[in-house]
Write a structure and sequence with these properties.
The chain is of the alpha/beta class. It has six helices and ten strands. β4, α2 and β5 form a beta-alpha-beta unit. The protein starts with a strand and ends in a 29-residue tail after the last helix.
Length: 227
């Protein structure tokens, strides 16, 4: 199976082509960026597909990070994945950003719980806790930093994700130290591809997993009077 993976959920624009038969990434590229995903994504995808030596119709599936993450970034990635799926006639699947962070640590079977977290700003994080074989202990949710630390200190844990450093900095005195702290601005695109390959097939197109409402609100004072 040939998987095209796309990630624009956080502070990176990334794509990769993964061959499940050979168990290897044929081509990949990741650009660190906080904005500008819309302009960068399709040229990046074209470069990756060119390096892999593939046309879109040769793909078997498109995988995309569906959230949580940046509202704008999620829309860019999911729109691109759905568009490529429509043109190529192949299915598109959504992959949890939190699961993509946790996946390499679950795969090494160390046994400790994995606390995947993303900075949601304003003293909050997006959080998921997973155990062996990817079993979910705490489902994806928006939590205050204090609540997230309380959950993370319940058992020996590996902290991963863009908010891992925030959790480590707020670690209470006297609590057992985290087994690992790995703060990455975005998940590895190869693991987005692997999770996309393992995802159950569905005819439902991927949709954003926001976990909270958009911060933007209409500005009453800026409205023009109607004639």
């Amino acid at each position: 199976m040939l998987i095209l993976a796309i990630d624009t959920a956080l502070a990176a624009c990334a794509a990769a082509v993964f061959d499940t038969d050979g168990g290897k990434v044929l081509a990949s590229e990741t650009l660190g960026m906080a904005r500008g995903h819309a302009e960068a994504l399709m040229p990046l995808v074209a470069r990756v597909m060119g390096r892999a030596g593939l046309a879109f119709h040769q793909l078997d599936r498109i995988a995309v990070t569906a959230g949580p993450g940046s509202f704008t970034g999620l829309r860019v990635g999911i729109s691109a994945a759905r568009g490529i799926a429509l043109v190529s006639g192949k299915p598109a699947v959504g992959v949890s950003t939190l699961a993509a962070y946790a996946a390499p640590h679950i795969a090494n079977e160390a046994g400790d719980a994995v606390v995947a977290s993303i900075d949601a700003r304003h003293g909050h994080v997006y959080l998921q806790v997973l155990a062996g074989a990817g079993r979910t202990l705490v489902g994806p949710r928006l939590a205050s930093l204090e609540d997230a630390v309380r959950v993370a200190t319940a058992a020996p844990a590996r902290l991963v994700g863009s908010a891992a450093g925030l959790l480590a900095a707020a670690w209470p005195t006297g609590a057992a130290s985290p087994v690992l702290v790995e703060a990455e601005e975005a998940p590895a695109i190869a693991w987005v591809a692997r999770l996309g390959a393992a995802a159950s097939h569905t005819d439902v197109a991927p949709t954003p997993l926001y976990l909270r409402s958009h911060d933007a609100r209409p500005q009453d004072t800026a409205r023009l009077p109607r004639r």
